[in-house]
Amino acid sequence: MSTTTLICVLVGMTAVTYGIRSLPLLLADRFTISDSVLHWMAYIPPAVLAALIAPSVFVPNAETHALNLDWANPLLLTALPTLLVAWRTKNMYATVGTGVVVLALLRLAGLN
Q1: What is this structure's pTM?
Q2: Mind telling me which residue stretches traverse the membrane in this protein (predicted)?
């Protein structure tokens, strides 16, 4: 790939990426968003986070792609108290701290 082609590809990708992200911001004040849509949009970040985390928790071995719901799965054991803390406290720092501490304790106990 020539340097000119690489630069054109990078500039094009940058324009598309920032165009997609900035266009709603530029047009946001021209539209009013209903309360029901705003309420619905509040569920998007947790849904995206769950979609990113769930494969790692339930399928920890990427080579076999096997569902692992065994109690010896340290990521599943970490997710359970972390979800409980997230639900009860709604505090990001407490949630992340719980996940880190629980996983570290499980790894220290020899559960890999």
Answers
A1: 0.63
A2: 6-28, 40-59, 71-87, 92-110
